[in-house]
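Batch 3, record 17
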Amino acid sequence: MEYSPAPLRYNNQCEYRRCGRSGLRLPILSLGLWHNFGGVDTYETGRDMLRYAFDNGITHFDLANNYGPPPGSAEENFGSIYQKDFKPYRDELIISTKAGYLMWPGPYGEWGSRKYLLSSLDQSLKRMKLEYVDIFYSHRLDPETPLEETMMALDQAVRSGKALYAGISNYPAEQTREAAGILRSLGTPCLIHQPKYSMFERWVENGLLDTVEKEGIGVIAFSPLAQGLLTDRYLNNIPEGSRASKSWGFLKPEQVAPAIAKAKALNDMALQRGQTLAQMAIAWLLKDSRVTSVLIGASSVKQLSDNLQSQKMLYFTSDELKAIEGILKGN
Ligand SMILES: NC(=O)c1ccc[n+]([C@@H]2O[C@H](COP(=O)([O-])OP(=O)(O)OC[C@H]3O[C@@H](n4cnc5c(N)ncnc54)[C@H](OP(=O)(O)O)[C@@H]3O)[C@@H](O)[C@H]2O)c1
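Prediction for the assembled complex:
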């Protein structure tokens, strides 16, 4: 059926936050296409989720060259859905992609060389049938390529018009500071950092959040639900069809059991607050104004809709925050 977006999509369904010291505002919830949009997944479910997201004010879709499986297939599927449903709305969308992980054989198919990054961006644009992406990321720090080379490639991507903004992902605090300095000197400020951040993964609190704040860089937190562990998905078992049950899923079954006791205690707290655990985990990240957006994944419209409701209750009392710390520290 032909898609016409909800006319009231900007009617307070979603809040927008400024991304660092830039002119760009992002929805506080963004949708990532790492899982559930690949060649192994059901195309129509992905399409329904993208439509539902856009209908509810989620203007940002995040991809990477290697998302699938097979690698590249999430961009291909997105490109096909974009052509059918979203092309007239290109100026309302923030579409990002990345390069850094293994994409093709030989010495130029991963990491951070200029050769790899710029070739990969061209490939991504072709797969997505786009003239440009809004954000192009270096997906991970390359310890062997000079940072200047990687940053010059991002700057080149922006200058060529193939990307509007430059971003980095998974960079430690110190290299983030250096990368920001190089990009600034080139005249292409670093827009955004994409780190893993959730109640279960808090490395960013040891320096990175302070660094991005000083540098005026926004933050988009990935895997905010710890791939589903911070939801009610695994409280009783590993259900059929869940990420941990799939051979290609990045959540391994052995990661589930050690998380369950904490997830159950957090789930009880969330219920007391009148929220689902997923909603509370998202709200917990958004309590920090340095977090521009929370980058969720979903396998159904129902999950997306659940997650969007997190916005109804972003506030925490200091007692609630203390109780959460207690659970996370295993007290
Ligand atoms: N830069 C990087 O290196 C990097 C790395 C990883 C991810 N990312 C980005 O971050 C995005 C999100 O990552 P993620 O998918 O790991 O995020 P996540 O939000 O932590 O996990 C998403 C999974 O949680 C489950 N879920 C979501 N909402 C739920 C709900 N309301 N109730 C029950 N279960 C729910 C679903 O699992 P089921 O599938 O089992 O239903 C869903 O697939 C990715 O798509 C990608 O864009 C970036």
